[in-house]
TrEMBL record:
Domain of life of the native organism: Eukaryota
UniProt-recorded name of the protein: SCP family extracellular subfamily protein
Any Pfam family hit: CAP
Taxonomic lineage: Eukaryota, Sar, Alveolata, Apicomplexa, Conoidasida
GO cellular component: extracellular region
Residue stretches making up the SCP domain: 356-526
Record field: compositional bias (Basic and acidic residues): 556-565
Cited InterPro entries: Allrgn_V5/Tpx1_CS (IPR018244), CAP_dom (IPR014044), CAP_sf (IPR035940), CRISP-related (IPR001283)
Region (Disordered): 545-577
PROSITE patterns assigned to the protein according to its UniProt record, in alphabetical order: CRISP_2
Compositionally biased spans, kind Basic residues: 566-577
Length: 577
């Protein structure tokens, strides 16, 4: 009976405070009387408006017993706001609405007062001004062209002539069937007009140039032919032109072609590549000189070979990291001959199936969490949708540089979670997207981690097995603590192939961005990311892990660890990809 009386006295005292609260005319002072911690990004005008929505005492709910009647209330939703700015209902853009919840709960000493702000998204999406679809997953680099001064110029294409002019062309060509400049019949048949201009002074002697025939040799040195017609004084001169060449059309095998060119492919080149290039060699290769009339060079370039994977095997798919080969010959500026076997990188990004990505990212998270006794995550479409939104923002506005979203943005877009955690990563890719490796890379931060509360500067350290090569800056452990956090129950991830290329890569690559969001957030300052039992299991089973003993928390240790982090950042500053 005494306990009930005591409870009633406490409730009566509380009600006197409530009546004082309701009679307070200064709306902002009401929050102090309630000892409520107000959201940092809620503007004063919205806080004042919400204080005015606190209901009168007769609207409060009774949540206790008749002997000890405890009370509770929930306000209506606030006005729209975002990032310390009040918004109109019609304004487009990110927005949040909040309400205040007040509850009295029984306790051993009588009762506790529990207060909290609840939030719901109030975003009005603006009309998109640009096409936000993913860029087409095309080849990252076009095949490099071989310098024009090192190869044979592209032969002119034959032109179509009207019947009367074609008859004139054929008549001049017939003159080359005999005489000292006679052209072999097979070569003569191949000659077509590439230029025909009427001579106004002498219409019967037009200026004519023909194509060049194939090399008139089977697998040996030979000659190719062409002819021209020009007026020479009072005569109309038909002149056959002959140049040395190498004919490869009738070589018995592919290796014989290289012998005719007096070239030996590098010993490191796979035999299948050598054969592929031999098939691409032109059947007719001209021999030309530059500055050194007696020094004839084979002038040619093959087409590009089929695509090979980086290990040299043929690529059967249209995507992935790979290259093509070519062979070329010609002369340099000093007249010397050259011959080269070249490589052209040609990589294209392989698209990822969305369902496969979602399942794979969830499976990889849970494979690691489950191994060490952390509760498994569930997929959440709301978190995935937000991850897609933030990935688009980073891609379109920041060239995929890594910037975390803020609690204000979470509240404006994600419903159902008090707070949201986030992990970001970017890779340089030329072919296959190694998205599952990202989760493993986050977890690898465990080798730089000493068990302790989030916010303790001594939890991240350059331990013996710590490799921070791929850390964004200094020594990082926050990705690992978030993906392993037992507070988080759900996850949703998204990826984007960025519009910008990597600046530091030696070969052409594009940025590949991954965003994972977790609900609720796991990196809560002052809490351990997972239990000590999990830490002990990690210590036992993971080679190189040095989680225990737990990181020091005293002020002197914190100062020392903070200074070490400043050194880590100087040694490994943030690098733009």
């Amino acid at each position: 009976m005494l306990t009930v009386v005591a409870s009633r006295l406490l409730v009566a005292a509380l009600r006197n405070k409530v009546r004082r609260l309701l009679s307070e005319t200064d709306l902002m002072k009401k929050w102090k009387l309630l000892h409520a911690r107000t959201p940092e990004d809620m503007p004063q005008s919205v806080l004042a408006d919400l204080a005015g929505k606190i209901p009168l005492e007769d609207k409060w709910q009774q949540v206790g017993t008749n002997d000890a009647p405890l009370m509770a209330f929930t306000t209506e939703w606030s006005k729209r706001y975002f990032d310390n700015k009040e918004l109109s209902e019609a304004a487009c853009g990110l927005g949040t609405k909040s309400r205040f919840v007040y509850t009295q709960e029984p306790s051993a000493s009588g009762f506790l007062v529990v207060t909290r702000f609840e939030h719901q998204p109030a975003t009005r999406m603006c009309e998109r001004k640009s096409n936000q679809e993913q860029p087409e997953l095309t080849r990252l680099q076009k095949p490099a062209e071989i310098p024009a001064d090192k190869v044979a110029p592209t032969p002119p294409k034959p032109i179509a002539l009207p019947p009367d002019k074609l008859k004139i062309f054929e008549a001049f060509k017939q003159q080359l069937r005999s005489g000292k400049d006679a052209v072999p019949e097979k070569a003569l048949e191949q000659l077509k007009p590439v230029r025909f201009e009427t001579n106004r002074k002498n219409p019967k002697c037009p200026e004519i140039d023909s194509t060049i025939s194939d090399c008139q040799a089977e697998c040996s040195l030979g000659a190719s032919y062409s002819f021209s017609v020009r007026q020479n004084g009072g005569d109309c001169e038909v002149k056959a032109e002959k140049q040395k060449c190498i004919g490869l059309s009738e070589c018995k095998n592919l290796s014989q072609k290289w012998k005719m060119l007096r070239q030996q492919p590098p010993a490191s080149m796979p035999a299948s590549h050598v054969e592929d290039l031999a098939r691409l060699l032109p059947n007719s290769i001209p021999m030309r000189a530059r500055r050194r009339p007696g020094n004839l060079c084979a002038v040619f370039n093959t087409q590009l070979s089929g695509r090979y994977a980086l290990d040299g095997s043929p690529l059967s798919t249209d995507c992935g990291e790979g290259y093509r080969r070519y062979a070329a010959g010609g002369f340099l500026s000093d007249g010397k001959c050259f011959f080269s076997f070249g490589l052209v990188e040609e990589s294209s990004i392989c698209a990822v199936n969305d369902d496969e990505f979602d399942d794979g990212m969830l499976r990889k998270h849970n494979e690691i969490r489950g191994k060490y006794g952390v509760p498994l995550l569930k997929f959440d479409p709301r978190l995935k949708k937000f991850a897609e939104y933030w990935a688009d923002r980073l891609n379109e506005e920041h060239e995929c540089e890594l910037y975390h979203s803020t609690p204000s943005i979470h509240r404006a877009l994600v419903e159902g979670f008090e707070n949201v955690g986030e992990n970001l990563a970017v890779q340089c890719v030329g072919g296959n997207l190694r998205w599952q490796k990202v989760v493993q890379d986050w977890f690898s931060e465990i080798l730089c981690y000493r068990y302790g509360k989030v916010g303790n500067a001594c939890t991240a350290d350059k331990l013996p097995k710590c490799d921070n090569k791929f850390h964004d800056e200094g020594v990082m452990v926050g990705h690992m603590t978030q993906m392993m956090a037992d507070l988080s129950t759900h996850v949703g991830c998204a990826y984007r192939i960025c519009q910008s290329s990597c600046r530091t890569a030696s070969s052409p690559t594009r940025k590949f961005l991954i965003v994972c969001n977790y609900g609720p957030a796991g990196n809560i300052v002052g809490t351990h990311p997972f239990s000590k039992t999990v830490a002990e299991k990690l210590q036992r089973q993971l080679p190189g892990a040095a989680l225990l003993p737990e990181a020091e928390e005293d002020d002197a240790s914190q100062k020392k660890c903070q200074e070490r982090h400043r050194q880590f950042k100087r040694q490994k500053p943030k690098e733009k990809l």
